């Protein structure tokens, strides 16, 4: 019997040094697609209407929640980057590889895709089931590349809790989506232009 081509296919753990930009992008889009599917299925299993969860709010107050928290978090991130040694904030070079030579339009797309997919799963589905505290612990654990250092892990937890809090305060998923988008966009552009200069 002839062996199929799929028998040669193996999933292996890659070290950051082994990743290429192309492989990193494939991994990013694959994991975000998986995140989106899990989020949608989880919401449907909760017997909730996906269109209600993603409904555009009547009031624009959610913009202030998203912009306000994003501003606070970006200032805190800037302060941490000056106070904390760079090796303590290291993610293995993943963000640098992802954004350093990416066109601006692609950084915008990545930030939007990540914000929508992750917030739909974590705030829209998981937080509805287990609350913001445990959701934030899970969110920090999922960002595994930061787990080698306690400061970025703690910062991811605090950021996630803040996203959960503005979701509860604003009553709409679009507040944490906007906040998450702005943080990823500004961070990606900072890496892009810092490396380009």
From TrEMBL:
Regions crossing the membrane: 23-43, 63-84, 104-122, 151-168, 174-193
Q: Which Pfam families does the annotation name?
A: Rce1-like
Q: Which residues form the CAAX prenyl protease 2/Lysostaphin resistance protein A-like domain?
A: 102-186
> Which keywords label this protein?
Membrane, Transmembrane, Transmembrane helix
Stored PANTHER family: CAAX AMINO TERMINAL PROTEASE FAMILY PROTEIN (PTHR36435:SF1), SLR1288 PROTEIN (PTHR36435)
The molecule here is called Lysostaphin resistance A-like protein
> What lineage is this protein's organism placed in?
Bacteria, Bacillati, Bacillota, Bacilli, Bacillales
